[in-house]
Amino acid sequence: MFTEIEGDFLSGQKISEELGCSRTAVWKHIEDLRQEGYELEAVRRKGYRIKTIPDKISHNEISLGLKTETLGRKIHFEDSVTSTQKIAHQLAYDGVPEGTLVVAEEQTSGRGRLSRAWYSPKYTGVWMSLILRPNLPPAKAPQLTLLTAVAITQAIEEVTGLRPDIKWPNDILINKKKTVGILTEMQAEADKINSVIIGMGINVNQSLEQFPEELHSIATSLSIELGEKVNRAELIQTILMKFENLYQKYLQHGFYPIKLLWESYAISIGKRIIARTITGTLEGKAKGITEDGVLMLEDDQEVVHYIHSADIQI
Ligand code: BTN
């Protein structure tokens, strides 16, 4: 109701009538909002007015105005966790429905690809894990990483107007610096996915000084690139919306429409790259991705290599 009234006063009477609860219950909820860091003005005969919204995100802020059908309909929100991936794995194992989202303000042991750490300081970024239960063979799961990259890129474009690039398979860069990382993990049997857990780490409102020194030349945040703070709850809502559209398209029509979108954002296609895989280093031209999201690299002898997992240098 406060979101709809856009900064105007809302009377306790109106809130209690609309929500069908007592005035005491309204007062308690107002106190809860204050605890969450909202500054609320109370004026006799006028009611309550939100003066400032905290620079925190809350369960409420993410769900208020969320227009998705399934994604984010159930949100598990925490102030501080070791890793949202860890919590999501447990929830998925416990049988929560598709679309359940785990969001935290801080991760103390955020995980990246290849067992790297993911730096996740409090109140600055979006650290979240989405649980999906697609009826697909396990080999298709990597396609969801590419779909995620497209969804986040589209959401960043819409919310900030910035123009991110995707570096295969799952890095989102702005001005060549890493802004987003995606970690896809799954619980599966030989021929059936039980759940896919998509971890998304987005550097949103960090200043350069808030990054460790060793990341200064390779990482950035949306606010550094934009020159102003970005509303994290709005970004999460937009990601979920874009994701749901793409996911429905993917389940109905397969990977091809997603592949086209992914290629339109890809920074490395057609360029010379170095791919460091666990079996060695390859150098050549990135030709594109296959129907399954596998990277095709053509070396100087014109031999095409199919790369499933690697670190790419452009
Ligand atoms: C990468 O190495 O680029 C992937 C980074 C993924 C980080 C996200 S933050 C939310 C989720 N929880 C984690 O511990 N990792 C992922």
TrEMBL record:
Entry binding sites for biotin: 107, 111-113, 178
GO molecular function list: ATP binding; biotin--[biotin carboxyl-carrier protein] ligase activity; DNA binding; transferase activity
GO CC term (a single one): cytoplasm
EC numbers: 6.3.4.15
GO BP annotation list: protein lipoylation; regulation of DNA-templated transcription
InterPro entries in the record: aa-tRNA-synth_II/BPL/LPL (IPR045864), Bifunct_BirA (IPR030855), Biotin_CoA_COase_ligase (IPR004408), BPL_C (IPR003142), BPL_LPL_catalytic (IPR004143), HTH_11 (IPR013196), WH-like_DNA-bd_sf (IPR036388), WH_DNA-bd_sf (IPR036390)
Lineage: superkingdom: Bacteria
Catalytic class of the enzyme: ligase
Keywords from the UniProt entry: ATP-binding, Biotin, DNA-binding, Ligase, Nucleotide-binding, Repressor, Transcription, Transcription regulation
Start and end residues of each BPL/LPL catalytic domain: 60-251
Annotated DNA-binding residue span(s): 12-31
Keyword ATP-binding among record annotations: yes
Catalytic activity: biotin + L-lysyl-[protein] + ATP = N(6)-biotinyl-L-lysyl-[protein] + AMP + diphosphate + H(+)
Its biological purpose: Acts both as a biotin--[acetyl-CoA-carboxylase] ligase and a repressor.
NCBIfam families attached to this UniProt entry: birA_ligase
Entry similarity comment: Belongs to the biotin--protein ligase family.
The protein, known as: Bifunctional ligase/repressor BirA
Organism ancestry: Bacteria, Bacillati, Bacillota, Bacilli, Bacillales
Gene (UniProt): birA
